[in-house]
Amino acid sequence: MNRTAGEAANLQLVLDMFAHVLNPMDSSAVDRFIAPGYIQHNQAAEPGREGLKKFLDMIREATPEAVHDVKRAFVDGDHVTVHYHVRRWPDDLGWAVMDIFRIEDGMIAEHWDVMQDVIEGGPNPASPF
Amino acid sequence: MNRTAGEAANLQLVLDMFAHVLNPMDSSAVDRFIAPGYIQHNQAAEPGREGLKKFLDMIREATPEAVHDVKRAFVDGDHVTVHYHVRRWPDDLGWAVMDIFRIEDGMIAEHWDVMQDVIEGGPNPASPF
User: Fold this and answer.
1) Is residue A124 part of a domain?
2) Looking at the 3D structure of chain B, how many domains does it have?
3) CATH code for position B50
4) Which H or E element spans position B115?
5) Helix and strand totals (H; E) in chain A
6) Which residues form the SnoaL-like domain (chains A, B) (predicted)?
7) Percent of chain B clearing pLDDT 90 (strictly above)
8) Would you call B120 an interface residue with chain A, using a CB distance cutoff of 8 Å?
9) Does some domain include residue B83?
10) Using a CB-CB distance cutoff of 8 angstroms, which residues of chain A are in contact with residue B127?
11) How much is the ipTM here?
């Protein structure tokens, strides 16, 4: 790895956000990691930082046992990629998710994601992870 | 950007693969970019390099007008992330896709991806890109 100190800090910020916001689905921790002008590209969430809090409250209410299991994460300058497995309940096949975050001034300023159902019995015996 | 020469080469390899393999859906160009021991994690494709060729032939036959429009791409060491928009025909809303590639010895050795339908009329007016 040839990461700069800035890149290492950007990656750590995102992993800390997973630990303190996404995994516990804790909307009260959002303001420590997410910039006031947060640009949300997720298609199911309402815009901005307040939309994210509402989304977290909604998923914690609906699926309190959900886990967000990070499989790999990368950083290139201001952008961090995370590939992870969401399981809503213990035997859930779940979703494969990739997120890209843009960091600005030490906060997460923008977010894109793609999510897909994990299937069983497809043509590829390899894990999606 | 603080990319090493090796990182720049890895990113360029993937972008060249998009230009010569994925965009033209050209299975005959696969062996120039994809390692013999290619590990495929896409859930819809058959395993390995031969499975990829079969998959490309299938999509070129089914959707000859398809475009793979790269929105952003990043590199961290041996791993490259690409976020792109697949449209199967001119007015297709299409799919949002993120790929992660692992490069080994100048070839693409492993691939993970996640894809999701682009929707209209959701709660977020922002583009998924």
Assistant:
1) no
2) 1
3) 3.10.450.50
4) strand B107-117
5) 2, 5
6) 17-111
7) 98
8) no
9) yes
10) 41
11) 0.96
